[in-house]
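re: ur msg from earlier - yeah i can do the glutathione complex, just paste it... oh wait u already did. ok heres what im feeding in:
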Amino acid sequence: MTNPIFYTLHLSPPCRAVQLTAKALNLELDHHVVNLLAGDHLKPEFLKMNPQHTIPVLDDNGVIISDSHAIMIYLVSKFGKDDSLYPKDLAEQAKVNAALHFESGVLFARARFVIEPILAGCSEIPPEKIEYIQKAYQLLEDTLQDDYVAGPTLTIADFSCISIIASVMRIIPSSYPKIYAWIDRLKQLPYYEEANGASAAEHGQIILNILKKNAANV
Ligand SMILES: N[C@@H](CCC(=O)N[C@@H](CS)C(=O)NCC(=O)O)C(=O)O
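and the outut:
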């Protein structure tokens, strides 16, 4: 058995969520970089693995899994020494699942509405999109009743939510005290900066630079 192969790009938030999970599990993954800008994800061999042409994708000795949430659940269930990051208890697990869906359906989806038009040449972020993101921040703020998004302990839902929040907060900053306290808590993880912090900052800055360039070309 060889290490699972991880098709990834450090700038991609869902890839970073998986990377945080692997680090938390102390698990070695063989990284294969998929350069989205060069169209690697549209090549036939990649499409065979994931017809939806998204990263991350995991190939664990022939078991192919796409979608970061599915990958994180798989990794913790297969390689976790305990179930703390994805509890087996159904009530606790349901909370984690709800937060994972919140990331996928609200945080990531709304960030996409902002980031994709900028990549396509848009020169300013329309106010209604800023408001839409800020409403999502407020929902996260309201969700943070405990130290972590799904309760009092760290789970994969935190990895998922922080991966996109750390990128987008640079593009549309806002002051939400619980979100900032939660970010500071996650920054204490010894692997945080390497697995998410530095790349999220780079991602946010790249988007801001493109936005500036687009505005200069108007
Ligand atoms: N819900 C998916 C989202 C994956 C996703 O949209 N990844 C982006 C990069 S951040 C991608 O691969 N985009 C290329 C494309 O959609 O063609 C997940 O969590 O894995």
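cool cool. The mean pLDDT is 97. ping me if u need the other ligands too
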